[in-house]
Design a protein that fits this description.
Alpha-type protein kinase domain-containing protein, 152 residues, alpha+beta, ATP binding, two-stranded antiparallel ribbon
Length: 152
């Protein structure tokens, strides 16, 4: 992509990841509050998941005035989305919930099914707490780390 096309796309992806993290935090706050308001713990383990860390990095052109002290400035000449590495690459990812269906993508006998069921629950909480405005629809990852591929 040209820089003019790439900047809004990467900004959109970074912003989507930011909001996905916020929605997951809201869900855990809801769960923690519900647990504190009861006398007994749930009879199942609640997975503690998180989205990968990511940041936007903008590279600027550099110019020098004189030979002694360089000065930085100029225009943006590159943009990068820096994401935390998930070992094993894309083949190690588990697709928990597809973006076209709110049901787990895994069958009940597969590893990760309990996480997929939990993530379906998080969608319900997000949808309910946002009064039907939003929920994360494409969950994938490895172990406790979730990745996000938004359609920007």
């Amino acid at each position: 992509f040209s820089l003019g096309d790439e900047l809004p796309k990467l900004y959109c992806k970074a912003n989507t990841l930011y909001w996905a993290k916020a929605l997951l935090t809201m869900t855990y706050d809801f769960i923690d509050s519900a647990i504190l308001s009861t006398d007994s713990l749930p009879p199942f383990k609640i997975p503690r998941l998180r989205f990968v860390e990511a940041r936007l990095a903008l590279a600027h052109s550099q110019f020098t005035k004189g030979l002694v002290k360089p000065k930085f400035g100029g225009t943006v000449c590159g943009i990068y989305l820096l994401e935390e590495k998930i070992e094993g690459g894309s083949t190690a990812f588990t697709k928990y919930i597809h973006n076209m269906n709110c049901k787990p993508s895994l069958s009940a006998d597969k590893d990760g099914y309990d996480i997929a069921k939990f993530l379906a629950f998080t969608q319900h909480v997000q949808y309910s707490k946002s009064r039907g405005l939003v929920f994360v629809s494409d969950y994938q990852g490895k172990l406790n780390k979730l990745g996000l591929i938004p359609g920007c």
